């Protein structure tokens, strides 16, 4: 993608309105938290203290809107504490550039490295850099600095108390994540009715699993309806795929296909009912015709062999889903910490998160890490922006580095899109606020009220797009400064100019020190290939030795495969938006390789649906094929990294030996899945063999084939059709 086109995409993305559900009650509660601390501070103290209180309450409130599964009150307290600490530490080093600039650089670098823990940690850490830049201009002594830090922390406490006293849709995000997973499988079942080989995106299942990890205190209060249905969705997904697939399931046409479509439609209805039940916390009704379809009738069942096994398994699983849909979200809650820790995915508490964060940061301390490069850019831009603004004849010079810090992200597209959105939102917001200040006059209490209203509107629009939320954030800042006695004639032009400087610095930093994903695509693809190979091998070993331990290995390999696929997908999406020439994989080759690996994973999923029970007969041929498959995919991953053509010799030999073995129902499914995997891997070879470093080899082979064809025609034997 060329720079001009990339910038056009950036502008479009930065100004796009995201279709998402607004949460006005949450915005109202969070704005009330700002009002609770701003009003008394303005009345009892001074505008400077009110500004500190507003900073703490506003930033802590904004942190609670980030996508995280931890309790909102914990996020508010953590954000308030971080803001207070950065304020006080910044003041201790303020006054001299020789002390403040190194502190600012180190603090910004650590804030950038916080992205190793997660996006929420990275965003909250960036706000602490802004706090350090703003509030060091307010206190005049250490005692005053402590007072301002305490008031900022009080803003976080106020937000946490309001969350505790006025809970709004408790466990709502967790309910939505689980309901979305069930709805995704329901949609998959419907698509399979018309397209038996339709793909499935596991992202909703991954999100639901992430949401299912809870702290011990959360485990004691989590509704039981949020625990079991996720496992049902995981088990139903491969079964509906196997039932619909014409190779291992129902026939491609006839009564068997009609019966499969009925079952798939009924499965979608039941899963949708379960999703509605969990999302709303109320019992749901399944259409009677769908319930009738699930009633087994052995005498008139038209499906046979593996298709019938899949149908019976699906009916059994949907029976469990019907219980979920009928019971709603009511029920007893687990109260035993020991039991909870054994049943639930455990998330570390905030105190136990420190060693986890340290390990995550250590893993990113390498030159090619996007997080590490983001941290270096953040540190450089924060200090450079502060120095440039300090030399300009403008007040509030901290706006320039703040604009950079709050807009920057570890990837190119989001950084540039947020810069565009911040500039557009700032222009609109300061224009709106300026008109209101000129109309209403410089009354501190009126401007304080307008600041609270602007904060509420910013919270309301926080998930519709950064530009629209930033519009009211800019108005909030103008009202806040006006409340402190700053004339709009001074603040508005300064705000616009310094925002332009900060945005330009953020953009320039990514050009000077980028972290492009395009060159890393072969590595991401190789990681996904190796993880997929381990997952497919684990499935095959469950056929060779059907034990509980093998099933556990299969589950772990599946999760690792999904993580590798998600890493590839994120890198692939970013690479498509980068103004960088392809290196290693062109866009077409990456797309073809992606489709091949999706087909490879789908074949493993089809085999997973028919994994035998523990007392079933083992299939030794599956073990030999698993060993060959795992070895060849591991070697092929290295080949993809080094731009070599993969070889599947061991896999071909193992599959040839399997073809002579006696067949059974499950052995037939496993062998058919193995053939589908071989076909997918051949497609992968076709895709990656055209990488730039291999094109010369391909050209030579093509030239040899052309010469052979010409020679054959000269001999009168016709054109050659051998495949090179």
UniProtKB/TrEMBL annotation:
InterPro entries: Memb_transporter_dom. GO terms for cellular component: plasma membrane. It is a multi-pass membrane protein. Coiled coil: none annotated. It is found in: Cell membrane. Keywords: Cell membrane, Membrane, Transmembrane, Transmembrane helix. Pfam families: FUSC_2. It comes from the Bacteria. Residues 690-724 are annotated as: Disordered. Residues 385-508 form the Integral membrane bound transporter domain. Its main location: membrane. The chain crosses the membrane at residues 74-94, 100-117, 148-168, 419-437, 467-484, 496-516. Residues 692-706 have a biased composition (Basic and acidic residues). The keyword Isomerase does not apply. Belongs to the YccS/YhfK family. This is Uncharacterized membrane protein YccC. It comes from Actinacidiphila glaucinigra.
């Amino acid at each position: 993608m060329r720079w001009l086109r990339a910038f056009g995409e950036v502008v479009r993305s930065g100004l796009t309105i995201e279709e998402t559900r607004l949460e006005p009650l949450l915005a109202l509660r969070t704005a009330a938290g700002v009002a609770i601390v701003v009003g008394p501070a303005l009345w009892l103290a001074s505008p400077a203290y009110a500004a500190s209180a507003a900073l703490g309450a506003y930033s802590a409130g904004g942190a609670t809107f980030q996508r995280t599964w931890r309790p909102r009150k914990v996020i508010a307290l953590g954000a308030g504490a971080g803001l207070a600490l950065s304020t006080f530490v910044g003041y201790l080093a303020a006054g001299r550039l020789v002390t403040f600039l190194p502190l600012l650089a180190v603090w910004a670098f650590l804030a950038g490295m916080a992205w190793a823990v997660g996006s929420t940690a990275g965003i909250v850490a960036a706000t602490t850099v802004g706090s350090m830049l703003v509030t060091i201009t307010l206190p005049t002594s250490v005692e005053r600095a402590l007072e301002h830090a305490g008031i900022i922390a009080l803003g976080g406490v106020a937000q946490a108390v309001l969350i505790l006293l006025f809970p709004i849709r408790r466990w709502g995000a967790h309910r939505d994540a689980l309901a979305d997973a069930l709805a995704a499988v329901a949609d998959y079942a419907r698509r399979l009715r018309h397209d038996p080989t339709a793909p499935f995106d596991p992202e909703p299942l991954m999100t639901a699993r992430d949401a299912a990890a809870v702290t011990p205190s959360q485990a004691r209060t989590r509704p039981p309806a949020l625990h079991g249905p996720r496992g049902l969705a995981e088990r139903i997904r491969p079964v509906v795929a196997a039932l619909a697939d014409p190779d291992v399931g129902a026939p491609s046409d006839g009564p068997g296909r009609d019966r499969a479509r009925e079952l798939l439609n009924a499965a979608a209805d039941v899963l949708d009912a379960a999703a509605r039940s969990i999302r709303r916390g109320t019992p749901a009704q399944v259409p009677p015709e769908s319930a009738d379809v699930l009633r087994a009738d052995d005498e008139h069942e038209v499906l046979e062999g593996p298709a019938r096994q899949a149908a019976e398994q699906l009916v059994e699983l949907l029976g469990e889903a019907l219980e979920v849909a009928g019971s709603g979200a009511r029920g007893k809650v687990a109260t035993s910490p020991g039991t909870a820790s054994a049943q639930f995915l455990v998330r570390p508490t905030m105190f136990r998160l420190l060693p986890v964060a340290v390990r995550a940061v250590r893993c990113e301390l390498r030159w090619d890490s996007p997080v590490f490069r983001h941290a270096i850019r953040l540190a450089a831009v924060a200090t450079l922006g502060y120095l440039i603004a300090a030399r300009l004849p403008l007040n509030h010079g901290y706006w320039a580095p703040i604009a950079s810090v709050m807009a920057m992200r570890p990837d190119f597209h989001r950084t540039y899109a947020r810069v565009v959105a911040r500039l557009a939102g700032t222009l609109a917001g300061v224009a709106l606020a300026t008109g209101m200040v000129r109309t209403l006059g410089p009354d501190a209490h009126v401007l304080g009220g307008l600041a609270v209203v602007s904060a509420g509107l910013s919270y309301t629009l926080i998930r519709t797009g950064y530009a629209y939320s930033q519009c009211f954030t800019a108005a909030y800042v103008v009202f806040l400064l006006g409340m402190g006695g700053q004339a709009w004639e001074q603040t508005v032009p300064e705000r616009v100019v310094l925002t332009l400087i900060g945005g330009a610095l953020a953009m320039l930093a990514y050009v000077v020190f980028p972290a492009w994903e395009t060159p890393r695509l072969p590595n991401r693809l190789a990681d996904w290939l190796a993880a997929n190979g381990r997952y497919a091998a684990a499935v095959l070993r469950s056929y060779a030795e059907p034990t509980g331990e093998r099933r556990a290995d299969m589950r772990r390999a599946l999760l690792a495969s999904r993580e590798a696929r998600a890493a590839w997908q994120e890198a692939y999406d970013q690479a498509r938006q980068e103004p960088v020439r392809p290196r290693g994989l062109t866009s077409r080759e990456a797309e073809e390789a992606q489709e091949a690996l999706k087909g490879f994973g789908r074949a493993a999923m089809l085999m997973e649906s028919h994994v035998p029970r523990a007392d079933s007969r083992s299939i030794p041929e599956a073990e030999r094929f698993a060993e060959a498959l795992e070895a060849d995919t591991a070697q092929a991953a290295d080949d993809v990294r080094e731009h070599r053509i993969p070889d599947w010799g061991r896999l071909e030999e193992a599959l040839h030996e399997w073809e002579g073995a006696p067949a059974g129902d499950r052995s037939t499914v496993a062998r058919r899945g193995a053939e589908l995997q071989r076909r997918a891997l051949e497609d992968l070879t076709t895709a990656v063999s055209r990488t730039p470093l291999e094109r010369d080899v391909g050209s030579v082979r093509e030239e040899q084939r052309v010469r052979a064809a010409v020679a054959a025609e000269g001999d009168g034997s016709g054109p050659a059709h051998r495949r090179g």
